[in-house]
Write a structure and sequence with these properties.
The chain has 242 residues and is mostly helical. The protein has helices at 14-41, 44-69, 85-107, 130-162, 178-190, 195-212, 215-236. The longest helix has 33 residues, at 130-162.
Length: 242
């Protein structure tokens, strides 16, 4: 019998899947816990305040998971993002797509285009000054720098390829497969309160993946959207978007 440490690793096995789903799962556990708490307690306002305080812990756990995941995901290459030649054109396209998704997102906060009630975010639970600013800074940094990496690893590095083929690492990033394209766009939308805007965003980031063949460009596009949305939320006080 071959010793376990000498056996060849199965492509698309747990060692490939875990780094791409763990950060997302860590993040969603907090979301699920809050939804279950609201369902059984009905105290949505108090739980919203609690969730706002817990968010830094949530992001810290996801960052820890990303520290494990990123070195094991070679598709997260900063070399894909450049300012010259074809990489520059890809970067411009990804950033422009991110801006377009932001504009669509804030204009599709309409009754027919959303599902449920957003958890929201209230910075007023913190004392004015440094505590409040620190809470806002963590929220903005989490949305801009952490969430895009976590989500793109799950949706467009793992799931869009896994639906096509369980040995997903053998599927080139950006290769078009309509069933997985549509499934990921729909599921990405259903993850969000603004479901229609979410589906459009899922389509847009899928297009970035096909156009550039780069997960890192998807992260960039997603980060541009989230960064602009975060700044807009802070400037306008539209906390329900967070």
């Amino acid at each position: 019998m071959t010793p376990s440490h000498n056996r060849p690793r199965t492509a698309g096995g747990l060692h490939d899947i875990l780094p791409r789903i763990l950060p997302f799962c860590c993040y969603m556990v907090f979301i699920a816990a809050r939804e279950v708490s609201v369902l059984f307690s009905g105290m949505s306002d108090k739980l919203t305040d609690t969730a706002s305080f817990i968010y830094p812990v949530q992001i810290a756990i996801v960052v820890a998971a990303l520290c494990y995941a990123v070195p094991r995901c070679p598709e997260l290459s900063l070399r894909d993002v450049g300012l010259s030649g074809s990489r520059g054109r890809n970067t411009l396209f990804s950033a422009a797509t991110g801006v377009a998704v932001f504009a669509i997102w804030i204009h599709l906060d309409l009754p027919w285009a959303r599902i449920g009630t957003p958890a929201g975010f209230s910075p007023d639970i913190a004392e004015p000054g440094l505590p409040r600013n620190a809470l806002l800074a963590v929220r903005l940094a989490g949305a801009t720098l952490v969430v895009p990496v976590m989500e793109e690893l799950f949706w467009r590095s793992f799931l869009i390829r896994y639906i096509r083929k369980p040995d997903f690492t053998s599927v080139p990033a950006g290769s078009l497969h309509w069933p997985s394209f549509c499934a990921v766009a729909l599921l990405f939308g259903l993850e969000h309160h603004l479901v229609v805007a979410g589906i459009i965003a899922g389509i847009a980031y899928n297009i970035v993946l096909i156009r550039t063949g780069s997960i890192m460009q998807c992260v960039l596009s997603h980060a541009v959207t989230n960064g602009m949305l975060g700044v807009w939320v802070i400037l306008t006080g539209s906390w329900s978007f967070w």
